[in-house]
Specification:
The complex is a heterodimer.
Chain A: E1 4-7, E2 10-13, E3 19-25, E4 31-38, E5 42-51, E6 54-57, E7 64-70, E8 73-78, E9 87-94, E10 106-107, E11 111-115
Parallel strand pairs in A: 2-11
Antiparallel strand pairs in A: 1-3, 3-8, 4-5, 4-9, 5-6, 7-8, 9-10, 9-11
Chain B: E1 3-6, E2 11-14, E3 19-21, E4 23-26, E5 32-38, E6 44-50, E7 56-59, E8 62-65, E9 75-77, E10 86-93, E11 101-103, E12 107-112
Parallel strand pairs in B: 2-12
Antiparallel strand pairs in B: 1-4, 3-9, 5-6, 5-10, 7-8, 8-9, 10-11, 10-12
Classes of the chains: A mainly beta, B mainly beta.
Chain lengths: 116, 113
């Protein structure tokens, strides 16, 4: 089974609808992230969470909100979807390690969202 | 602010050719550097990483050396295979600013037989 799962994998919706994308992980990591990927722009960070009570905005948080329901679950919501939110969305996890080492991010398979 | 700039693609090579994908970075402090690979229809996977200057990351025949003097982390492979066709992302993890990750725009590689 995959360590980081995302649901749904594909979603088509209409402008103005509220959408929730879900991410679950079995890696036991404390840190979770949401990114969007657009052609030619690479990955842009939307929100990140270092633990259940710590949620932070990334580069492009406007129009999005998140909920960290448990250590293993991190959901992304689009309150009122608009067409320029059409993109590929990735969830990622990492575990911070001290002593000079560095955390590595592990990605889910992605959710392709289309807003008409 | 911190950022990563990588060579634009797409790159098309014949099998067994030498690969270089350039990556340079801007960062305060002492970032860690990564290369991720994305195969069609999949999420990003860590390919290799380096945590300090002069470190060399390597995996599956790919190598990259953390060069602080030139702020670079170029990806190389001596002999590419068709199975290496993918999109490659350079990334840095900031040592401050909340330890965020910053990704380049990705370089698409196609290897033809």
């Amino acid at each position: 089974d995959a360590d980081v799962t995302q649901t749904p994998r594909n979603r088509i919706t209409k402008t103005g609808k509220r959408i929730m994308l879900e991410c679950s992980q079995t890696k036991g990591h404390d840190r979770m992230y949401w990114y969007r990927q657009d052609p030619g722009l690479g990955l842009q960070l939307i929100y990140y969470s270092f633990d259940v009570k710590d949620i932070n905005k990334g580069e492009i948080s406007d129009g999005y909100s998140v909920s960290r329901q448990a250590q293993a679950k991190f959901s992304l919501s689009l309150e009122s979807a608009i067409p320029n939110q059409t993109a590929l969305y990735f969830c990622a996890t990492s575990e911070y390690t001290s002593g000079g080492s560095t955390d590595t991010q592990y990605f889910g398979p992605g959710t392709r969202l289309t807003v008409l | 602010g911190d950022s990563v700039t990588q060579m634009e693609g797409p790159v098309t090579l014949s099998e067994e050719a030498f690969l270089t994908i350039n990556c340079t970075y801007t960062a305060t402090g002492y970032p860690s550097l990564f290369w991720y690979v994305q195969y069609p229809g999949e999420g990003l996977q860590l390919l290799l990483k380096a945590t300090k200057a002069d470190d060399k990351g390597s995996n599956k025949g790919f190598e990259a050396t953390y060069r602080k003097e030139t702020t670079s982390f170029h990806l190389e492979k001596g002999s590419v295979q068709v199975s290496d066709s993918a999109v490659y992302f350079c990334a840095l993890r900031a040592s401050n600013t909340g330890n965020q990750f910053y990704f380049g725009t990705g370089t698409s590689l196609t290897v033809i037989p």
